[in-house]
């Protein structure tokens, strides 16, 4: 039951089809009832739309927030890894990536950090090796300087010894011939030490050693005729410091022997044949005595020294025919290597 302003009572049907005004005693208008229903329906629809709009706004905001969070969750570790990579490339080897984010990205960052740790250990080991190599190089250079100085001092002291021998030759002519051999040996050593004092490397070129020995003999015996025939490729081969002295003494003894017993030009050859390096020294002689390399028969002091020097080093072959004496020394190719 409803009451209007002047106290008139009116009712609404249960089916809400019409309103009845008891004051005017008039039938309810069907049109008026339909309008009321329409208005109520529109009001309800507006409410539904409003609620739906609110829900849509909340859903949109939630979606944007979720998308933003997911994007940050994925992109942040990726950007950090990219920046770390750029930093390492720029020389910041100590930088490391943050191991966060999705499992795959965190695993990638972890492997990147492991790789950088291994790289740093490798770099540190290489630097340690480089430092060790520098120290070794310094030691080698110091040793080389010291060795060259030793060779220089030995060479400088040998002339004094030679002077004593020459004085003895003048005072004791009966032993002058034997002392000449000793003199040649000392001069041969002086040549070796002189060459080693000038060179940075301790290895000597075989050709240069041979030429120096010949020059020494010609300087000691004016007018001595010596011709050298040298294969340049063989002459460039180098021999070690330990082999230089015995080879130099062998060359000297053969040259002195050729000068003592020969009558003409001394021919010296340096060549390669049959897989070996050959040093041949020969000259004319008056008569050929029987010489046997195996037994040493016919060997004088000089040839005996040559045979002893070539033990475990090389071989010597001696021939004498038609008034020509020939001594050939063969050295293994590995003994005289290419530089």
Q: Your description of this structure?
A:
The protein is of the alpha+beta class. The protein folds into three domains: 34 residues, no CATH class; 72 residues, no CATH class; 181 residues, Histidine kinase-like ATPase, C-terminal domain (Heat Shock Protein 90, 2-Layer Sandwich). Helices cover 59% and strands 15% of the residues. Strands 5-7-8-10-9 form a five-stranded mixed beta sheet. A three-stranded antiparallel beta sheet has the order 1-2-3, with no helix packed on it. A two-stranded antiparallel sheet has the order 4-6. The N terminus is likely disordered.
Name its key features.
five-stranded mixed β-sheet; 10 strands; alpha+beta; 7 helices; 59% helix; 339 residues; Heat Shock Protein 90
Topology:
Elements: E1 2-3, E2 9-12, E3 19-21, H1 30-89, H2 103-171, H3 176-198, E4 204-205, H4 206-220, E5 226-230, H5 232-235, E6 238-239, H6 241-261, E7 266-273, E8 276-284, H7 301-309, E9 315-321, E10 324-332
Parallel strand pairs: 5-7
Antiparallel strand pairs: 1-2, 2-3, 4-6, 7-8, 8-10, 9-10
Structure described in brief:
By secondary structure, the protein is an alpha+beta fold. The protein has 7 helices and 10 strands. Strands 5-7-8-10-9 form a 5-stranded mixed sheet. Strands 1-2-3 form a 3-stranded antiparallel sheet, with no helix packed on it.
